[in-house]
Amino acid sequence: MTNLHAGILGTGHSYPEGILTNEDLAKLVDTSDEWITTRTGIKQRRKAASDEYTSLFAVRAGRQAIERARLDPSDIDLLLCATVSPDQILPSTGCIIQAELGTNNAAAMDIVAACSGFIYGLTLADSMIRTGQIRHALVIGAEVLTQYVDYTDRKTCVLFGDGAGAAVLGPVDAGRGILSSKIRSDGRYEEQLYSPGGGTRRRPTPETLAAGDHFFKMKGNELFKVAVRSMADISKELLERARITADDIDLFIPHQANQRITEAVADRLHVPLEKVYSNIAVHGNTSSASIPIALDECVESGRIKAGDLVLMTSFGGGVTWGGAVLRW
Ligand code: UT7
After folding, report:
1. Average pLDDT value for residue range 22-35
2. Which pLDDT value is given to residue 1?
């Protein structure tokens, strides 16, 4: 074990121009702006046009992150694309992004961990940098979730949006960068959020397509409780491992699943809402893209300053969850 430490050197984000408002959705299903706003905090979400695909946004976000890290694409040794809405089955969206960005010295692949995908990528990249296996990693969370949303199911169609966020990781001085990180999963909760069709178990046929088997299905109410408990518990563990308390945190960036989940987790951690970042009103739930988009918005707006302690935590289908504490 060396004494290398990994931190974020640059961030970026991108999303489609198309906007789907609560009013637009109220014309499609039996819902209202009032219900969506009070139950989720969402007012609008971005929606890709039919000729826009996941890697398009991932490449834009990734290029921005590499530029802001003041690196050349050839400096990237590892490219991880977290996504549950890949461009296609083969090759990985990571490889497609690699070709577009010219990160030709990297190993590229996808991570399928739903909304926790970016934190999964961050944790894996951190480990590989700290052990000296690689020097620089590009971790991207990118989704076109609206492709998998059933616009006749009011329980899910109001939640999800599209976009991508990216971060370049590399070696930093001791005491900075990632102070602690952890990822977990529990496959026994598979059917709380899943998309059963299209793979080898339920193969794509005209019948499965017509039945909407490829759309996301969710038991939102049950997931809500597991999400709050998992994110709060892992955050407490990560704070302890970083030898800090919730009072020390300058900025809390939770996965943007539901404003009520965000507030419940913050409450359990005793983090005041002024320290909590929320963009769910304008983006909805963008799964693996939610944390890196939020992170880059904080960088762009000056909400994160050098030396700040940042706590991030995520939860998603699988179920998967995780988190990280960073000194910016
Ligand atoms: O990012 C991955 C992780 N995702 C999550 O963790 C999501 C967690 N779950 C949630 O965010 C919330 O459970 C939802 C936003 C999905 C749902 O909110 P809820 O307060 O848990 O509502 P509910 O599912 O208990 O439904 C309450 C009522 C039901 O009607 P009845 O049965 O009481 O008559 C639903 O049919 O609200 C109804 N409902 C709606 N009404 C208007 C559900 N969706 C809608 C809707 N518009 N869009």
Report:
1. 98
2. 44
**192-207 residue pLDDT tens:** 999 999 999 999 999 9
Q: How far is the CA of 162 from the centre of ligand 1 (A)?
A: 20
Give the total residue count for the chain. 328
Strands (E), 29-175: 44-46, 78-82, 107-111, 137-144, 162-172
Query: Of 159, 174, 189, which residue sits at a domain end?
Result: 174
Strand pairing of 137-144 and 78-82? parallel
| Torsion 145-151-156-161 (CA) sign | positive
Q: What is the pTM of this model?
A: 0.97
Q: How far apart are CA 46 and CA 145, in angstroms?
A: 10
Tell me what the mean pLDDT of segment 100-122 comes to.
98
**Per-residue pLDDT at 219 exceeds 90:** yes
Residue 220 structure tokens = 């939102």
Cβ of 305: how many Cβ atoms within 10 Å? 11
Residues with CB under 6 A from ligand 1: 31, 35-36, 39-40, 115, 154-155, 158, 193, 220-221, 223-224, 227, 257-258, 261, 285, 315-316
Same domain for 46 and 130, yes or no, is: yes
* CATH code for the domain of 130: 3.40.47.10
